[in-house]
Structure formats: structure tokens, C-alpha cells
Amino acid sequence: MPVEVIMPKVDMDMATGKIMSWHVGEGEAVTKGAPLFDIETDKAAMEVEAPDNGILHHTAPEGTEVPIGQAVAWLYAEGEAVGEQPAPFAAAKTPEPAPSDEPVVADISHPEPDVSALPQFAPAPIAADRARATPKARAMARKSGLDINALHGSGPLGRIQAEDVLSALQTVPAMVAAPGFSAENGPLSVTRSRGGTGTPVVLIHGFASDAQSWAPLEAHLKHRPLVRIELPGHGKSPKLRIADFAALSRTLRQCFDSLGLENAHLVGHSLGGALSLALADTRPRSVASLTLIAPAGLGPEINGAALSGLLKATRAESLGPWLKALVADETLITDAYVRLAMSGRSEPNLRHAQSALADVLFPDGVQAFDLRAALDRIERPTRIIWGKQDGIIPWKHAFGAPGHVALHLFKGIGHMPQIECADAVGSILKSAV
Amino acid sequence: MSIDMTEDSNVPYAIRTYPPEKLKDALRKMYLIRKFEEGAEDSYTRGLIHGTMHLCIGQEASSVGTCLSLTDSDKITSTHRGHGHCIAKGADVAKMFAEFFGKETGYCRGRGGSMHIADPSKGNLGANGIVGGGLPIAVGAALSAKRLGRDDVTICFFGDGANNEGAFHESVNMAAVWKLPVVFVCENNKYGMSTSIDRSTSVKSIADRAKGYDIPGVSVDGNDISAVAEAIETAVARARAGEGPSLVENVTYRWRGHSKSDRNRYRTKEEISDWMERDPIPRFAADLVSHGILSDAEVAELDADTDREIAEAIDFARSGPDPDISALTRDVYTETAA
Amino acid sequence: MNTHATIEAPTRELSYAEAIREAMDIALGSDEAVVLMGEDIGVYGGAFQVTGDLVHKYGEDRVIDTPISELGGAGVAVGAALTGLKPIFEFQFSDFAALAMEQIVNQAAKVRYMLGGAVSVPVVMRFPAGSGTGAAAQHSQSIEAWLGHVPGLKVVQPSTPEDVKGMLLAALEDPDPVMIFEHKILYKMKGHVPEGYYTTPIGKAAIRREGKDLSIVATSLMVHKALAAAETLAGEGIDAEVIDLRTVRPMDRETVLNSVRKTGRLVCVYEGVKTLGIGAEISAMVAESDAFDFLDAPIIRLGGAECPIPYNPELEKAAVPQIPDILEAARAIAKGHV
Questions:
Q1: What ipTM was reported for this prediction?
Q2: Is the dihedral of CA A204, A209, A211, A216 positive or negative?
Q3: How many beta-carbon pairs below 8 A join chains A and C?
Q4: Cβ of C296 and A138 within 8 Å?
């Protein structure tokens, strides 16, 4: 049996060694302890002595990198038959990048990950307007359903302390309960564009918005007749008393039915998206296609703080920060824009009606309706458009969509893609409607 | 047997002092140490065990000769080059290997490794990763023996490197002042890592350090087990008699580098091969044969038996269970019943 | 071990130093294995007269004057503890422990773990500590956090005569190394001390004053400053809770966290250097726990200044927290000024 000559481990952290040169030629005799070969590690070079007496055969070529403990040659006894090399040389592995547990590169073209496996998604904090508050004040506000960002801080630097939350709870009960409003009656407000041919496009705006919000997108949809519906308590629609999402959905369906459209493309944003989806679910034959922009209804989370901030604002100064929460690029929200938006919200009864609606639709900052099953049932061509910096509704809700629904996810865009990137959204719609 | 056992004969001290069985066991332990170190080196070289280790190949006579007359209640403190001391003091090589392999079945349950092997049941208080670390501890053990009226002695192994540590001087001084039953055994293998004693130590012989503390100091050929045993017996007897500590210097040589990282740039091949000529094991074996204690065949049998014992020990070690990660912080403190 | 005092024994006034001496007297009288070791602890009575005349009662064999060899002496105590004695080792000043760090940190703290639980080290070390004596930079430090960083050690800072006696006796019952930091200013402080044997638990903080508005967690001498500050604050309508941490390692999480959950405000007061010290640990402990949710103001740490202890009396005072500092901090967070 030939004696194996191995690559010795000569240093604590050595994994492989390189054979630099052999002191003894193939077939030559060597005595135990005589220099046999030189190795080089990443730290130093050194000489390796023969482990035994014998005739050297099957030497690994100079320059080869061999893992420690692996054979580099064999020593045969005098007269021992030399046959095949007893074992092949082990190759030193080139170090590979450490295997990670899962791919980290997100690629939208790959199958979407199981949404249930995603980490729990909390409403995105709005850093610029995050209130300064103590941990205790935050915990108290959280428990009592108060929006910490809406409180006044009496501490240094305006820090909200526990006593500020306490006094808020004692003196402003209206902040937690929905305010009352004087209800009205009548049909929803519907406006139509001039011009355009073919299947009309029905536009349903989001919560606390109105039909004017479609203006930037409409420029791309002039080839079709456009029909805008305003939700109860929004724009020029009456302030109806709405019991729940089903009731709201019913109201909208009645309005849609009254339009007498044989077929229509539905485009809805946010709450309007949820309502479009519900409408498509109950009137499938009247719907040519469905476009949901940052839609509600696909998961429980919503930024309750931003909603109540929008609702409570009575001045441009307090509205501005919350409007900025709607978009990724805050420079879009100019002072002029804020003033214009505020003028549309200046009527207290409108704000109160919206607050009452929010109270039934989004109690405690949670979406109280779930349309994921409806989305699964939809057979009409459907696409979801979402901004990946949406601070109002987590864009990852889109991952719950079934395979036949197309996803268009925009980097660097917030909750208002139809305004923030109207051109891109417009061209998607143009090819679809 | 017809050996002349009188003191003035040429019969070595060990052979005229100890019974044949003890002498045979001494040779067996020397083989065991040599093979243990070779087995450890081989396992390390093959990448089977990690860390580093300090091999005492060439120093077997010092370990075995020093521990030859000790009982299990006598204590030793050891050094980073402690495998030989451990085996000489009666440790089980299987549990030592298991410790090297980091196994729960090792002496330290995989927490200590090469540099911390201990066996308190045999009086071995442990190797030490700190140069000079064991010196004051040995003095403390001797203080316990004296205070508690036990007649055990403590052997304090240390290397030539430690003789320049403050701990050495403080410890020897205290042991001398308090006349404690401790024997300081310096294994002078001539190099503290790469620095020779000529370059590090102000006295010619480390035994001369004893003068500074007014205790006996003797230097012996550490590769001659009999000379070592004789010097230790004298020192131990003095310690047991309550006369205080002694310093014994075993002059020896390590064949291998300081540790596995040593490139051996500070010693010549000639110096190493000179010392290899003075291998303590064949020297003792030849003595035993020439004085009729063992036959050549019996020596060969010891050689083969210890090979087998080491192979079995490595098998035992490799197959042992790894420590449970959840027990990471066990034994930081003593568990006490609440 | 479980005789921790709910103290009903008769008490009398003793100084802190006398209370320590009484504990050592009880230990020496009831357990032959107990020995005292240290510099000038014999006829001199100890640099702070803590051991007093114990040498006359128990003899030089049990009240052992060591040479000025901190490393050696501490190591001897470790070795003795490993082999049957229960040494109480006195450093003359805690600052001198720097000389013995090797034996404290590398040996005493780690031996048990390195040996897989095979041994324990029942050594007690006493460290006269702290500033206020005009002894300047090398005789005034508070180094308890250094040792508190080492797993394997237990570190206590008793603040009263009653506690120091009970904790010293508890330390002697503890199988692991216990480091006792004694503030030198406390040595002359008098207080009620129960007669006879009792222990005060290691690892348990004491609430010295209950309060609802803020928690002051203090150690050693700072406990007394915090209590004085709390009285002043009470007159201002601020109801401070004062917690005496007593043990640095293992730290009593629950007592501290419960207090913070109650008051929502925390001031840490300790004499060691502020940065990377005990206050950092307490603050992090709060921040990592659910008690975080109860914080209603930033945490304030009052620790030693970032400099050695200076000689000039006014500078020396300025280098460690004083009562006005505690008042200022407490007012600031109680009234929401920070």
C-alpha cells in the first residue's frame, strides 16, 4: 500500500495550499523527514517534509491548489508495484458567493411571492411630519385610537408627552368620534366630456377627492367619451348617509345603471378602485375592462393617520402636509395646489360627511371591506397600477392579484400615479381602452 | 533479576528506585505522549480539528519523570504545552482527543480545547493559555494543602518564557516566604516562541533564579527521565516535609515549532537534528532493556499497544456528540438550587 | 443560602467597616476554610482598618499578609479557592486590581467555563473604591463596570453597613467569584446592622424610597446622594423613587424595569466614568424592553466625568455626580424640560 502524501494544514485559517515545487522527482527515492515539496498559502511559503521513506509517484503538478488533508502524491515501498494513481487529485474549490436563503433581486417578471409570507406591512411613516413624542405618549395614543401626529405637544421642542395625550382624550372627544353632518338626498353628480367615440370610460375618484382629480389623465383619453362619477359627500354629489361599503357600492351601482351604458371601461382610484371592482363584480357584462389605480379593498392596512389628517384640516397649512403624504415627490404639492384643494374642502358639512364615511369604511385606520375574492372572480381584462412609494395603501397588496391581472408598479411614485406620472399611466390606459 | 541496586552503582536512579511495573508504565506513557502528539498533529494537518496546538514531542521524559512519583491527590498546574503533563498525570487520551475535536465527551465538554485540558479528579488543575498563568494558582493550591492539613504537593509546570513574567517572581517569592509545598518545574526548551533564553533571560540557568528566593534550584537533563525523577523526588520530599518550595529546571527541547503557525525561522536544522538524536524514549527503552526490566519484544509490544490505544481514542473522539448550542452559556456560573 | 434577611434580629449601630469586619469574623469563626489575604491586613489592620485586629483572634495563618504582589496574591487566592479554601482577598485600593487583571479576568472568571463545569472558584475579592479622599487619579477610581463586563464574575456594590455584611456573607456562600466594591467614603458611615449571621441576596436591587414621578437608579455612595436629593424634590412636589442597584452583575432587571413602568422617567447615577458605563447598560436594558413604552422623557445618565479623578478638592467634586446634579436632572425630566 503506497503512503499518501497530503497537503498539510500549517496555519489556523488555511483551507488550501499551492504546490510550488517538488524537491524530489517522480520515481526518485526519498527518506522520511527530507524536504519533499514547497507549498505556498495565502500567508507564507514553506517546505514540507516527506512523511515516510519511499519512491515518489503520482505527484500533483506544480502550481496546483489543493485542499488541506488531500493527497498530492504517493510514496511506494522499494519494489512495490506502481499502478494507477490510487485516487484523483481533489480540486480546490474557488470560493463562491455565500449562498443566501432567498434571492434578493426583485424582478416583476418572476412569479410573485406568496403575499402571506411577506412581513406584516405597517402604514409607511411620514418622516417629515412625524410628531416628536415620548414612547409612553405614543403607546397611549395607539391604545386609545388617537392620531399622535394630530396632538399638540407641550414638552421641549414640542414633544408630545403622556399628559398631552391625556388632555386630548379628555377635552376633544370629537377627535375620536365621527362628527355629525346634515344629510342630503338626490342622485350622484355625473359629468361627461365632450367628444370621443367608442366605448366610454367611466372614472371613479378616491376618498376625499373629486372628479377634478382626473384632469391630468384625461388629456390621454380624449379619443373616448369620458364619464366622471363623484362619490357621496364628495365634489358636487349630495352628502348621503352611508351605512357601510355595501351601501356605498349599491349607491354607485344605481348611478351606473342610470347611465344606461351597454358597455364601459371602468377606471377607479383608491376607494374608487374598490368601488369599480365591486361594480365589475356585479355588472360583468357591462364592463369592457377594469383599471384599478392604487385600489382599496385588497388588504386591511391603510394610513389612518393621513386620512384623519386630511379630514380634519380646516386650513391650507394643515392640509398641505397630508396632501404631501399622498405623493412621493412632495414638490408636486405646491402652495397653490394646496389652496385650491382646500377651497374644495372649505365647507364643514362636506368634511363632516367624509368623516362619517371614513368612520364606516376605515374604522381605526383599517379597511373594513375586502374585495380580494371579487378580484379573483373578474374575467374582464384587468390591470392594477400602483406606486411603490404609496404611503397610504401598501403597494404590496397588489401581490394578492391573480395571474391574469396585469401589474404596473412604478418606482418613486406615491398614492397618486394618475397625477404623479400621468403620462405613463395615460399610455397604459390608451393601449387598453 | 540480578541487578545491583546499590546507590553508588551505575544503575540509573529510576531503575534502582521504582518497581518494574512502574517503570514499564513510565515508558508506556512516554510512547503514549509521543503518539498522542503525532495523532493530534495528523488530525490537525488533515483539517479535522481547528484552533492551534503546542506539541511537546521531544519533552516526554520531563512530563513523565516529573509525575512519576506523584499520587492522584498531588496537584499539577500545566502550561499551553500541556498534553504531556496531562497524560503523565493519568488522563484518558480518548477524553483528551474528544476535547480536541470539540466534543461534549471531552474533558472540558468542548469548551476548553487544547489549551485548557484539565482533570481535577487526577489532581490536574489544568493547562493554561496565559504564560505564567498557572504559577500563582499552584501557590494557592499549596496554600490550601498547608492550611487544610493535607500532605499533597503541587507541581507547577512552566516554560522558560514564563520565568521572566512578574507572576513567576511574585509566586516563587510567596511560596518561599510561606514555605508552601510546591515544586516549580521549569521545562526549559530554550525558546519562548522564537526568542531564545540567551536573548531573554539574565541568568545562565533558570535554576539560578532560585538563589533570589533562597530556595533550592537544580538543573537537570530533561531528556533523562531518571535524572528528572531524582530531582523531583528530592524536591517533593522537601515540600512534604514542610520545608518549602524548590525549583527544578528540566533542560529539554521541543522538536516541533512553538505552535502550528510556527515557520521555524529561528532555529537551525542542525540544532533540531542534534536534539532529535537525544530522543528520550529510545534512551529510556534501551536502559530498561539493558537492565533487564523489559525485553526488546516487550518494548515493541508497548509501542504497538500505544498505537492501538491512540487509534481507538481518535475513533472515540470523532464519533462523540457535539455540544448543544443551546447550552452555550452553561457553566459560566455554578447552577445553584434556588 | 435562603436565609436572606427579612431581618428581625436585634440591630445596633455599626460603621460600614465594622460591619465588614463582623462578617469576616463570623466567617472565620464558623468555617475553617475561610482565610483573609491582602496587603497589610494583619497587625496593621488593613489600609482602611477593615480587618482591624482579626489577626490577633485568628492568627497569621488565616489573616495572611501578602507581599505587595497583587497579581501573585490574587492568583494564589484563585488557586486556593480551586482547591478547598474560601479566600477573601483584599486589594488595598481597587485601582491596584489593574495589576491583577490577568488572574481576575483570565483565570478566576473563566476556569469553570473552560473546564466544562468541572470546577468552581469560590473566591471573594474586596475592592476599596471611589473618590472623595483626595488621593487623586490612581487611588480613587470606580472600576466596577470593567469587571461587570466579564461573564463568570459577580460584581456587587453594597451601599449600607447592613448590606455589606449580608452581601459579604452571601458572597462566601456563592460558589463563584464575587467582587465586592466598597466605597471608601462609606467605611465610616454608621447604620443599623443585625446581629449574627444573615445574607443579603446578590443580584437583587433594593427600593430605598418609593415614588411615582421618576426613578433614580443609583449605586454605592450615589444612593445616599440620591436619597438626599429625593427629600429636596419631595418639597417641590416631585416624588422620586430611589433604587439601590446593589449588584452590577447580574443586574436586577425587573426591579428597575418595574419602576420605570411605574414612573416613566429615569435618571441613572453612578460614580464610574459615564461613557460605556453602568448607566449605559441600564438605559439599554430599558430601551430593549417593554418598559420603553412607558418612558415619558429622555433617560438621563449622571456618571463620572471623562477624565481621571483630579487632586484639587473642587475639581475632584466636579468629576463625579453631586446632589445638585441629581436635583437638576430630576427637575428637568419631571417637569418636561429636556
A1: 0.84
A2: negative
A3: 30
A4: no
- What distance lies between CA A211 and its chain's CA centroid? 27
Catalytic residue selected from C22, C39, C70, C144: C70
Give the integer Cα–Cα distance in Å for A100 and C234: 59
Residue C70 bears catalytic tag: yes
Class of CATH domain A3-76:
mainly beta
Q: Could you read off the pLDDT of A199-229 as tens digits, one per residue? A: 999 999 999 988 888 988 888 888 999 999 9
When CB atoms are compared, the residue of A44, A46, A69 closest to B45 is: A69
Beta bridge partners of A384: A292, A407
pLDDT of A101 > 70? The answer is no
Q: Which three cell numbers stand for residue A347?
A: 365647507
Chain C: give the shortest CA distance to residue B330, in Å: 8
Task: Classify the phi-psi angles of A186: left when phi > 0, otherwise alpha if psi is within -120 to 50, otherwise beta.
Answer: left
CA–CA gap between residue C203 and residue C167 (Å, rounded) = 10
Task: Measure the CA dihedral C111/C112/C115/C117, to 10°.
Answer: 180
On the question of a common fold for C11-194 and C206-334, the answer reads yes
Looking at residue A317, what is its pLDDT?
A: 79
Instruction: Choose the catalytic residue: C139, C162, C271, C316.
Output: C139
- The answer to whether the CB of A251 falls within 8 A of the CB of A240 is yes
Distance CA A374, CA A282 (A): 9
Q: Which of B263, B265, B267 to mutate to test the interface with A (most CBs of A within 10 A)?
A: B263
The pLDDT, as a whole number, for residue A313 is 83
Assess whether C316 carries a catalytic annotation.
no
Which of A7, A11, A23, A36 is the best substitution to test chain B (most B C-beta atoms within 10 A)?
A: A11
Radius of gyration of chain C measured on its C-alpha atoms: 20
Domain boundaries, chain A: 3-76, 121-177, 181-301+361-432
Residue C335: closest C-alpha in chain A: A155
Domain spans in chain C, listed from the N-terminal domain onward: 11-194, 206-334
- Which residues share a beta bridge with B156? B77, B184
Percent of chain A with pLDDT over 70: 89
Residue A15 has pLDDT above 90, yes or no: no
| B67-79 pLDDT, tens digit each | 999 999 999 999 9
Give ∠ CA A108-A111-A112 in degrees, rounded to 5: 70
Question: CATH homologous superfamily for C11-194?
Answer: Thiamin diphosphate (ThDP)-binding fold, Pyr/PP domains (3.40.50.970)
Nearest to B308 by CA among B33, B38, B35: B35
Three-state secondary-structure class, residue A402 = coil
B202 touches chain C (CB under 8 A): no
Domain over A121-177 is classified CATH 3.40.1060.10: no
- What distance in Å separates the CA atoms of residue B294 and residue B302, rounded to the nearest whole number? 10
Partner residue facing A69 (CB), from B46, B52, B263: B46
Closest CA to A352 of A236, A241, A202: A241
Q: Do C72 and B170 touch (CB under 8 A)?
A: yes
Mean pLDDT over the full length of chain B? 94
C336 touches chain A (CB under 8 A): yes
CATH topology (fold) of A181-301+361-432: Rossmann fold (3.40.50)
Are A12 and B263 inside 8 Å of each other by CB?
no
Phi first, then psi: give them for residue B139, nearest 5 degrees.
-65, -40
- B·C CB contacts under 8 A: 158
Assign C190 to helix, strand or coil.
Answer: strand
> Is the CB of A6 less than 8 angstroms away from the CB of B46?
yes
Amino acid letter, residue B295: S
The arrangement of secondary structure in C206-334, i.e. its CATH architecture, is: 3-Layer(aba) Sandwich (3.40)
Single-letter amino acid code for the residue at B190: K
Contact C16, C164 (CB under 8 A): yes
Could you report the per-residue pLDDT of B144-196, keeping only the tens digit for each? 999 999 999 999 999 999 999 999 999 999 999 999 999 999 999 999 988 99
